[in-house]
Amino acid sequence: MIHSLFLINSSGDIFLEKHWKSVVSRSVCDYFFEAQERATEAENVPPVIPTPHHYLLSVYRHKIFFVAVIQTEVPPLFVIEFLHRVVDTFQDYFGVCSEPVIKDNVVVVYEVLEEMLDNGFPLATESNILKELIKPPTILRTVVNTITGSTNVGDQLPTGQLSVVPWRRTGVKYTNNEAYFDVIEEIDAIIDKSGSTITAEIQGVIDACVKLTGMPDLTLSFMNPRLLDDVSFHPCVRFKRWESERILSFIPPDGNFRLLSYHVSAQNLVAIPVYVKHSISFRDSSSLGRFEITVGPKQTMGKAIEGVTVTSQMPKGVLNMSLTPSQGTHTFDPVTKMLSWDVGKINPQKLPSLKGTMSLQAGASKPDENPTINLQFKIQQLAISGLKVNRLDMYGEKYKPFKGIKYMTKAGKFQVRT
Amino acid sequence: MTDSKYFTTTKKGEIFELKAELNSDKKEKKKEAVKKVIASMTVGKDVSALFPDVVNCMQTDNLELKKLVYLYLMNYAKSQPDMAIMAVNTFVKDCEDPNPLIRALAVRTMGCIRVDKITEYLCEPLRKCLKDEDPYVRKTAAVCVAKLHDINAQLVEDQGFLDTLKDLISDSNPMVVANAVAALSEIAESHPSSNLLDLNPQSINKLLTALNECTEWGQIFILDCLANYTPKDDREAQSICERVTPRLSHANSAVVLSAVKVLMKFMEMLSKDLDYYGTLLKKLAPPLVTLLSAEPELQYVALRNINLIVQKRPEILKHEMKVFFVKYNDPIYVKLEKLDIMIRLASQANIAQVLAELKEYATEVDVDFVRKAVRAIGRCAIKVEQSAERCVSTLLDLIQTKVNYVVQEAIVVIKDIFRKYPNKYESVIATLCENLDSLDEPEARAAMIWIVGEYAERIDNADELLESFLEGFHDESTQVQLQLLTAIVKLFLKKPTETQELVQQVLSLATQDSDNPDLRDRGYIYWRLLSTDPVAAKEVVLAEKPLISEETDLIEPTLLDELICYIGTLASVYHKPPSAFVEGGRGVVHKSLPPRTASNESAESPEAAPTGAPPVEQPDVIPPQGDLLGDLLNLDLGPPVSGPPLAASSAQMGAVDLLGGGLDSLIGGTNFTSPPAAAVPASLGAPIGSGLSDLFDLTSGVGNLSGSYVAPKAVWLPAMKAKGLEISGTFTRQVGSISMDLQLTNKALQVMTDFAIQFNRNSFGLAPAAPLQVHAPLSPNQSVEISLPLNTVGSVMKMEPLNNLQVAVKNNIDVFYFSTLYPLHILFVEDGKMDRQMFLATWKDIPNENEAQFQIRDCPLSAEAVSSKLQGSNVFTIAKRNVEGQDMLYQSLKLTNGIWVLAELRIQPGNPSLTLSLKCRAPEVSQHVYQAYETILKN
């Protein structure tokens, strides 16, 4: 199982180590550094690195490498999932997950890590339970602790630990009972030169924020559950009921959680809400190239497209760009060759465009590769797949909760080839 | 106020100051001091000097302080074992605490202190905690057993903790079950032979129940454990699959992949006609696709596994090509994997899309990726014949881009395309030749030279082109030199008049001026061939080359089957069995897919194998009707022994060894008339060793020339069941080669022709080494005797019984199936004599459970006679002892697949019964070895 964990910052310093079995010398990380050197970018460091006696599995999040050391045959996904859980827990505890924050809270971090694994076996990874065992630091609690001398370690066995609903603690009380669900969909798409869709798929999630007293039992039904044929559930969802009736029935965890994630694949038609018109031309002889892109709406069901940003990695031969946007602001970094254009909201009456020239290296032949355009956008109050919640009911408790459903569509990895 | 204050130091010296604070009377100050110590520890500073002071803080009601001290203890106890004893009392006391959290914490911490003296004190508290009323404590204690086992395995066994742990599998609480399974799995990993996780239908049922209720991590442990179980029939397999499928919708990708493993493995047992089989296939695709939308690290592991899954069952993902399309900002390791899977999924239906994508990738920035994309186009051409033309034109487009590395890569793959579709796309050669000067990589140069040599007669200036390469001959890499040598010899044979000078030049460069033995040897061979017999030279050098096929990059089926059992593990990421890389070479149990069995299958006797239904479906081995000639050709190519795979794999490696390939096919064509010494190394690796040791045995005078015992021929296929064809036969082993002696009798009224034979996969990979040669048509009432040479490099599948061999024979009338049992002694190899020391060590090493004892009755032979009789069949006597009037013979033998069997044979004078004890790491062979002994000794 998981032997040790090293946290390494982007400059290659090991700033935290934790061992769950015998101590593994930190020199084992040298193999990791070698791999890091070979990979040009941090994102390209291979996630599994073999060394003569150990295996290093790593994830790169928030500019920190989380490197787990294992010695025996362990499912790598198990380790990687666990590392993700560590990152999530840190974020949950401290608001952000960054080197200074971890250093500031090193003792809490250490206590939490100790609670998460025992002898390399996961022990408590649900943030609900962890927070009962070790209270997250808050300014108030620090002050209170210093005055009263009390501690931030819980001395009671977490209530959820052994019940049939390990994700929920007992005795939850709220004065305002509320349950909010956000249906968020991300479109991943590759659009080719001519504007036709090569692949498009939707990654959707339903995130919930549930603050309800007692042990509520919720059911959530959809207008069109047929869309959901590829789903992953939070453990609280009763799978049998979903299989037979296509209704989500569950006792929710307390607070924020991801109820379900789903995938609408390329087979079903995916509506593409925006289009990009582009004309980028390099000429062999000239040291000037022409550049023009226009963004416009398409299949948006009448909703506005907001927060649009366009980024593109220009070829190495491009020295500089002189462009004029019809709206928003743009920047071009001549070192990284990254063009980014913050468009804002698209007005269908006056489509935003960005035009101008590129200066190319004199005398060099025209670049081999074509730049790919990356698009970011948001559409409020729309789930692009058409998924709609029918109703939300609560059983098991007497009070009437506030309920709310919000929809949003975002661009995930949305790429336009030129 | 944050913890970073703990890192500040003062001038006086940190340790000194901490010491003072730790011994302070104020609780608060103490706690702060311990926090400072822990903070220093986490960043790797050595604070072990404070050990006694910190341990003094342990006796406290403050849980946080206690936990902090425990953290410290775990880290430093090992370096201060004597001091650590001081802590024992507190631990023992805490294990009795009314608060379950404290009991659990104490037992958990004690297990982490890896000091022998402490472990002794741990036993009693641990025993209590394993039976604690609180499940939280029990589950913690279960893990503690695994920790203790890691420190002192013997102690755990002696104290009976393993049994207690096994009992916990039936615990009422699912988390306890999951932890017990996890602990047992970890212990079992270091004791592969011990049968710790004794899985039976009852315990499986308990695990499946716990699976629904325990945490995600527990589910992973349980699923991995389930994957080791072999259901007794297809019904059980199906019911397990049904209960595992809901796990495919879990949010944790590790749970999903472990569930996929269980399903992929048990699916093997389900009949393809079952409705459920189809349902299951459909259910597997969406979760695999979903894994690809996760973080890149998860994607990578998922892709490596999907790579295996699409090779085993391409039907699962055949419609999902698009999800493998590469996004330009995917990390490179994800891109390369996606590309690989795209090629595996490429088919006629989607090839247009795939090619368009690949062409797009070939214009990306990342050089490695671009290269692989170009290669992928070539692989598509080879895989999907209909697309070859389109691929070639795509490649030509890419060559027009003049991007150096793209051009080179394209030329390398075009060479492969030429080898697959000879005389089809030669029109592009002119375009290729234009780019000759830009090639600077050895592989591309070698490929280009090969093309020029191969098509020398169509390239007007071939001699000039090759001559231009010759100028810098000594600066070229070996690969290019070899290729150049061959190409010029080819050119000479095609256009002898103009190129005499050139060939002399290259031969002298290769033989006289080169230090490279490969190059020299090849040079001399050509030289001699050309000078003695130019016709023969032509036959060798310009022989028709075997075609390459796309299968060269597939994982070998047996390895693939093994890897399927390891889905989700490191083995699946490396595509190597764990035995190839697991630390310390601890015995790793080989896993294999369960055989397909029907629940109502009766134990059919081999002779009575139904002729109507084929034993196992083999769709492409023997088509029932059709073009007979084509069939026969297929059959000849079937067994993986002849040239094609070998030559193809060398082509894959880049160095196109034409000489090797040429010789191979030449020898194959002329029926082994060439010296066998050359033929053997070229075609089969394995028998050389045994052949050589034969020679040694002969010279030392021990060998028994007669070869092993041969049973009389028995009727395998009665004429009634095979439309008049009767087959009887037996197996022989002589001087290292196995053969099947067959007698074919035609009892029908019509002439039989076009005989061919094929074996089903079997336990030892027996396969025909040559096609069945029946030269003349077999007239009615005529019979013919044939000796069919066999080898053991065929596909392996465990059969029941182990020595069962299913054979298909076809003639112009029909295809017939029969099965027969072969005596195991034909598999005893000639180098089966073990060294004495080795024997002793191995005998001790094999666990006693693997020992099997048999009686051989009515065999009144002396020890010497027994020994020499057995020696004839490659059972070697290593030592002989006389104990209390009994002769004890210690013998060893080795099977063709490398399994050693050790034997102890007890002979009592005057008693005709012999007692045989066999020890082997694969105990299932013992029974058959015993039968072989009996057969040999009684004949």
TrEMBL record, chain A:
One Gene Ontology biological process: anterograde synaptic vesicle transport
Topology within the bilayer: Peripheral membrane protein
What are its GO cellular component terms? axon cytoplasm; clathrin adaptor complex; cytoplasmic vesicle membrane; GABA-ergic synapse; glutamatergic synapse; Golgi apparatus; presynapse
- InterPro entries recorded for this chain? Adaptor_comp_med_subunit (IPR050431), AP2_Mu_C_sf (IPR036168), AP_mu_sigma_su (IPR022775), Clathrin_mu (IPR001392), Clathrin_mu_CS (IPR018240), Longin-like_dom_sf (IPR011012), MHD (IPR028565)
Q: Which SUPFAM superfamilies match?
A: Second domain of Mu2 adaptin subunit (ap50) of ap2 adaptor, SNARE-like
Write out the annotated subcellular location. Answer: Golgi apparatus; Cytoplasmic vesicle membrane
Is Transport one of the keywords UniProt gives this record? yes
Query: CDD domains from the xrefs?
Result: AP-3_Mu3B_Cterm, AP3_Mu_N
PROSITE patterns from the UniProt entry: CLAT_ADAPTOR_M_1 (PS00990), CLAT_ADAPTOR_M_2 (PS00991), MHD (PS51072)
User: The MHD domain covers which part of the protein?
Assistant: 176-417
- Keywords for the protein's UniProt record, in alphabetical order: Cytoplasmic vesicle, Golgi apparatus, Membrane, Protein transport, Transport
Record's family?
Belongs to the adaptor complexes medium subunit family.
Q: What is this protein called?
A: AP-3 complex subunit mu-2
Q: List the lineage, top down.
A: Eukaryota, Metazoa, Chordata, Craniata, Vertebrata
